[in-house]
Amino acid sequence: MKLASYIAGGKECYGVVSGDGVITMRGHASLRDALAAGALEGMRTAAAIAKPDFKLTDIRFLPVIPNPHKILCAGVNYKSHAAEVGRELPKQPSMFIRFHRHPGRAYGSDDPAQAVRQFRFRRRADHGDRQGRAAHSDR
């Protein structure tokens, strides 16, 4: 079962992908809330007897789980990625966590890439003469 969060008809929705469409689920404010409430089996049952109410071409995908509290990530887990960064594929992927501190900074697959502006800062010599980098999103 493929789950999705999306905008259809100007509203944020969540549902089950079925063929070239999506079956909108109801009863919770978001997919995250539905999963937290243990509604997965109910969604599976409802999707088995329903037909898609929107075509995939008529919706705009959001992040599957909007505003996640944390994201578990696997690093260097594809051969092509390992080759790109000049490393051998590890026996086990490196795992790391990203905690979501900035609501609204997760993007869906249809969202344009977000420009990131980098800038340098430099401390004065009397404060240790250090340089660093910081990234700032325009959003």
Task: Describe what this molecule looks like in 3D.
A five-stranded antiparallel sheet has the order 4-3-2-1-5, with helices on one face. The chain has a two-stranded antiparallel sheet with strand order 6-7. Among the domains are: 2-61, no CATH class; 70-99, no CATH class. The protein has helices at 31-36, 40-49, 79-84; strands at residues 2-8, 11-18, 21-24, 54-55, 60-61, 70-75, 94-99, 116-122, 131-137. It is built from three helices and nine strands, in the order E-E-E-H-H-E-E-E-H-E-E-E.
Topology at a glance:
Elements: E1 2-8, E2 11-18, E3 21-24, H1 31-36, H2 40-49, E4 54-55, E5 60-61, E6 70-75, H3 79-84, E7 94-99, E8 116-122, E9 131-137
Antiparallel strand pairs: 1-2, 1-5, 2-3, 3-4, 6-7, 8-9
Helix content: 10-25%
User: Count the strands?
Assistant: 9
> How many H/I helices?
3
Main sheet overview: 5 strands, antiparallel
- What is the overall shape? elongated
Q: What is the SS-derived class?
A: alpha+beta
- The gyration radius over C-alpha positions equals 20 Å
- The average pLDDT value, as a whole number, equals 77
**Could you spell the SSE succession in H and E letters?**
EEEHHEEEHEEE
Strand portion:
35-45%
- Spans of at least 5 consecutive residues whose pLDDT stays below 50 are 115-139
Strands ordered across the widest β-sheet:
4-3-2-1-5
Q: In whole angstroms, how far apart are the ends?
A: 33 Å
Keywords, separated by commas or semicolons:
139 residues; alpha+beta; two-stranded antiparallel ribbon; 16% helix
